Amino acid sequence: MEKDSKILILGGNGLLGSAINRELKKHNYQNILSPRSKEVNLLNKNSIDNLLKSEKPDNLFMVAGLVGGIMGNKKRQADFLYQNSIMILNLLESAKENSLGSKILYTGSSCIYPKINPQPIKEERFMKGELEETNKGYAVAKGMGIVACQLYREQYGIDANCAMPTNLYGLKDTYDLENGHMIPGLIKKFLLAKRDGTDITLWGTGNPRREALYSEDCADALIYLMKNYSSPEIVNIGTGFDYSIKEFAEILKKELKININLKWDLSKPDGTFEKRTDISRLKNIYPEFSPRSFEKGLSEIINNKDELKRILG
Ligand SMILES: NC(=O)c1ccc[n+]([C@@H]2O[C@H](COP(=O)([O-])OP(=O)(O)OC[C@H]3O[C@@H](n4cnc5c(N)ncnc54)[C@H](OP(=O)(O)O)[C@@H]3O)[C@@H](O)[C@H]2O)c1
User: Fold this and answer.
1) Which of 54, 169, 289, 292 is positioned for an S-S bond with 296, CB 3.0–4.6 A?
2) Which domains does the chain have, with CATH numbers?
3) Are 88 and 244 in contact (CB under 8 A)?
4) Is 73 a pocket residue for ligand 1 (Cβ < 6 Å)?
5) Identified catalytic residue from 29, 106, 113, 138
6) Of 174, 168, 157, 175, whose CA–CA distance to 221 is shortest?
């Protein structure tokens, strides 16, 4: 990927896509296209055909998708299955017909690994066990997307590559307390508690541990892979460190300078104790990769006026 390469970001207005956009601009890439879904709808093959036929991008980040947290997934399993399957299949088929030369980078997700894994989770665990019931539709679709990239590479020579990001958070996240992800949900709960002077009750014991990768660090790794990696083998993108939910809560209290009363609802389940990705493959490819701490990522969010407005309305 050169500074004047034509770069297409599908999903370029979402959490990860907007971070890729910002990182590319920071590094002086000028020729970036990031159409909204109402301009280029990936559920409609003609729509992506027209774009690839006219633009023939050199590099294509495929980070569009229907994305949500546990409840969002659980309530709409069929939608998550259908939309995430069709979007990647339409793109690959269209690339085959209209833009064979584009290099594609597609994102799976660490949450599509099987339910039970030795820790940390290596790439070899992909499709090696029973899936989590709550996001089966999403996991099957995203897993199929990865296999599809591998098969279109093998049969048609399309340079389609896949990365597996862990839990993300950052600017332009979806702060939906009911249907969104755990980290943005926690951030919103603490900001609301600070604004309204209320207590917070969190589920379970607070002992389970989770990774949290700032979206721009994920974008940095994806851009590096786009420039330096071409292989059917998937690559985890994580942090290499994790925090317990209690630790996340303590960091939020400290960074937001609040002294609220935190309650733990022990009648609610803890979920899986640990879910941490093994990033040794990424570190072999990109030894300088060094994601920021949760403290640092959080401060980018809470010191951004526009983002605070988005979160609190
Ligand atoms: N968030 C995480 O924690 C996480 C973790 C691991 C992996 N990932 C992966 O990273 C990728 C991006 O996730 P994200 O969190 O950035 O999602 P997001 O913020 O919800 O953004 C999704 C993007 O997809 C676009 N999109 C949705 N339906 C579309 C359609 N029919 N046609 C074209 N574009 C469509 C949306 O475009 P408009 O805004 O224009 O409608 C939006 O920009 C996904 O592949 C996801 O699986 C995310």
Assistant:
1) 292
2) 7-173+211-241+274-292 (3.40.50.720)
3) no
4) no
5) 138
6) 168
Give pLDDT, residue 70: 82
Task: Say how many C-beta atoms besides its own lie within 10 A of residue 161's C-beta.
Answer: 24
CA 17 to ligand 1 center in whole angstroms = 7
- Among candidates 128, 169, 126, 117, which has minimal Cα distance to 145? 126
Amino acid at 258: I
The pLDDT, as a whole number, for residue 81 is 98
Write out residues in the chain with pLDDT < 50, as ranges.
none
- Which residue out of 23, 52, 63, 107 has the highest number of ligand 1 atoms within 8 Å of its CB and is therefore the one to mutate? 63
pLDDT in the model for residue 72: 83
Compute, in angstroms, the gap from residue 306 CA to the centroid of ligand 1. Answer: 20
Query: Considering only CA atoms, which of 4, 1, 79 is closest in space to residue 43?
Result: 79
Yes or no: say if 226 and 103 are a contact pair by the CB < 8 Å rule: yes
pLDDT value at residue 272: 85
* Antiparallel, parallel or unpaired: β 159-165 and 213-214: unpaired
CA 212 to chain CA centroid, Å, is: 10
Q: Please report the pLDDT score of residue 169 as a whole number.
A: 98
